[in-house]
Amino acid sequence: DVNIEFELENLELELNDVTISIPLPHGVGTPNISECEGEYTIDTRRQHLLWQHTIIDQNNKSGAMEFSVGGNPDDFFPVTVSFSSTKSYSGIKVLDCSEVDGGNPVKYSSTTQFFAEKYEIV
After folding, report:
1. Torsions phi, psi of 73, nearest 5?
2. What is the pTM of this model?
3. H-helix or E-strand spanning residue 18
4. Contacts 24+ apart (CB under 8 A), 118-121
């Protein structure tokens, strides 16, 4: 049996479109999913189990999945995680903008986008 869990530790974050990609050993067939919080699909081309969550935030901060399939523990690594967020990891934000000469306020807009280029558990 394979058991995988997550827990959001920084409750100020809100992660969107989260996909946890777990490699599956070749030639062992389809895993038998016994527990899954969220959705899952099997990518047969890449031989990965894709565990998906629309949002992970303070109201939905943990999850677990359990499945059975043949293989050795090392066969299920590296696990990769992809996500996006409209909240800053550091909490830094622009409060106001002003002209260098004179200090007059300037109209501005701000958009925050946070994502991991590569996030692996090895």
Report:
1. -50, -40
2. 0.86
3. strand 15-23
4. 118/80, 119/80, 119/81, 119/82, 119/83, 120/78, 120/79, 120/80, 120/81, 121/77, 121/78, 121/79, 121/80, 121/81
Query: pLDDT tens digit string along 71-101?
Result: 999 999 999 999 999 988 888 889 999 999 9
Which residues sit opposite 32 in a β-bridge? 68
Q: How many CB atoms sit inside 10 A of residue 47's CB?
A: 13
In the chain, the largest separation of any two C-alpha atoms, in whole Å, equals 70
Give the type of residue at 115: F
| Residue 75, φ and ψ in degrees, nearest 5 | -65, -20
Alpha carbons 8 and 57: distance in angstroms, whole number: 7
By C-alpha distance, which of 7, 82, 8, 87 is closest to 51?
82
Q: Which one-letter amino acid corresponds to residue 21?
A: S
